[in-house]
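Good morning C.,

I know you're traveling, so I'll keep this short. The sequence:
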Amino acid sequence: MHTLEDIRREYDRLDRICSVDTSKIVLRLNNAQKRLGSFTYKPGFPHGVMTITISRKVLNNEELFLDTIRHEYAHAVVFIRHPFSKHAHDKVWKAICREVGCTPRVTVKDDVLRKNTEESAKYKVVCQRCGAETYYQRAGKIVQILQKESSRRSIFKKTSAIACRCCGGREFSLIVLK
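The tokens, ready to paste straight into the viewer:
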């Protein structure tokens, strides 16, 4: 499992390649499930604060880890080289992605993210109409609704509170994985 120190080491290595200094950037980890990383700048006196936040979700997957931390690093380099310019995921950012060795795309491949999500999920919800599977890390609203409306007579939970995003079905099975 990777750590903040691993991220800092990689950023120090990339700093030498890109001729920039990111040592003052605050590095953080969070438990985000959908957003794998973010770069932010907060203006302040005398200097603003740059922060890169990485989801713990990527720490166990080498390919996802490297691509995510380099993606966010590219945002930081764009900001350092072109302060206060709006570049987001444009050609300037994509050029820096290639410079640091990450794929210049906005989001990760669905199959990589899906596999990582399935491996760490605690709950799986399956639509009984179309078979669509959705994985959850915690017992959020949907899992709680299905737990509340569960019937001892059936392993399937029929509910009017939620609908399948693929087919609109309202009958689900809830599987506790961990």
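Safe travels,
E.
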